[in-house]
């Protein structure tokens, strides 16, 4: 599945120009013909649209939202575990026990596949100005590309820390060689600037399901500001989202129902569909993240922990809607649904942002600025929908603790918990306690350096200017 370790190429910004239409995860094709075709491409609107679609397609790659971001965002946390660590050469088990190696193939794919998408977005943004097309459509496409490039950089920087910041089309493979990694703060500043520009360019509603809208840019910008402890600055962006027409679904079982995709709660998600184009538009997520034995061919990675299952109270409608138990008592995610007889052709979309996330981020921001009335209000929107008792908490510490708990329950399996623990400074303490109190983790130890993942060894081997993160 992953061929990156066999190749000798550098996977920072150099390959996106070669992949105009592929949806495959195995992308490499460095033939001169590909480069020549790319150089002569984007002569008209139809060709530009193919380039735009290629950026969206990159979100489906294993190293982006098909496997890497849901796994990296959950397995290192107390929300999910690896039932069969030996499957897939311990690739996922390393995240469970913090034995993560620089040659981890999922991290290699994450670095590569994000930069493929970034480079493709760079190409579109570099060339769109010269294309004759309707100005409102040109604005929308520009906003979409700025958003997607910013989202990819956000994933890279919160996973690896300093990463090479490449913002223009790369035509010379040596152009960025030897420049090393860009400081995290500079990358974040770029991301914020891009998203602020995207907000003004994007439409409020999508012309097609799955396209980026203003609400997505507002929400991801706010999440980035919150990650940087800019709570007061994030609030005005969050406040603009609900009036755009989003609403919580009253029935939590409908949020992830494949028959109810792109519903009123979803602000942005990555599209997967079973049975299209020779099964190339589906995902492996259901196979990889379902219990082994319970689902034929499943790999048992990234399953909900028994602890998170037990945290839901009996009256919480999310308990059986989001997490189930196999006959053997192994928890599994109900957010991923079998949609095809081909287990590798899953049709569940991967949600990047939904309104429940916005509400809990608003609750957190209000708590941080000592507006406890509004903090309780938005926290209780999520509690009430789940059928659990509302609260009226009067201290910041109580509110932040309760919000963190609700985030943990609401978004189990969606790739948020690990990043929430890191940004709130709780990762080491929470996971140390979890290891001490959970059977099977007597050898697991988390250190401060584990808050960042190791830079893929292949990058360092190719360009010695790219240095490894401390501890690895």
UniProtKB/TrEMBL annotation:
<keyword id="KW-0998">Cell outer membrane</keyword>
<feature type="signal peptide">
    <location>
        <begin position="1"/>
        <end position="24"/>
    </location>
</feature>
<comment type="similarity">
    <text>Belongs to the SusD family.</text>
</comment>
<keyword id="KW-0732">Signal</keyword>
<protein>
    <submittedName>
        <fullName>RagB/SusD family protein</fullName>
    </submittedName>
</protein>
<dbReference type="InterPro" id="IPR011990">
    <property type="entry name" value="TPR-like_helical_dom_sf"/>
</dbReference>
<feature type="domain" description="RagB/SusD">
    <location>
        <begin position="315"/>
        <end position="472"/>
    </location>
</feature>
<dbReference type="Pfam" id="PF07980">
    <property type="entry name" value="SusD_RagB"/>
</dbReference>
<feature type="domain" description="SusD-like N-terminal">
    <location>
        <begin position="28"/>
        <end position="224"/>
    </location>
</feature>
<dbReference type="GO" id="GO:0009279">
    <property type="term" value="C:cell outer membrane"/>
</dbReference>
<keyword id="KW-0472">Membrane</keyword>
<dbReference type="InterPro" id="IPR012944">
    <property type="entry name" value="SusD_RagB_dom"/>
</dbReference>
<dbReference type="InterPro" id="IPR033985">
    <property type="entry name" value="SusD-like_N"/>
</dbReference>
<dbReference type="Pfam" id="PF14322">
    <property type="entry name" value="SusD-like_3"/>
</dbReference>
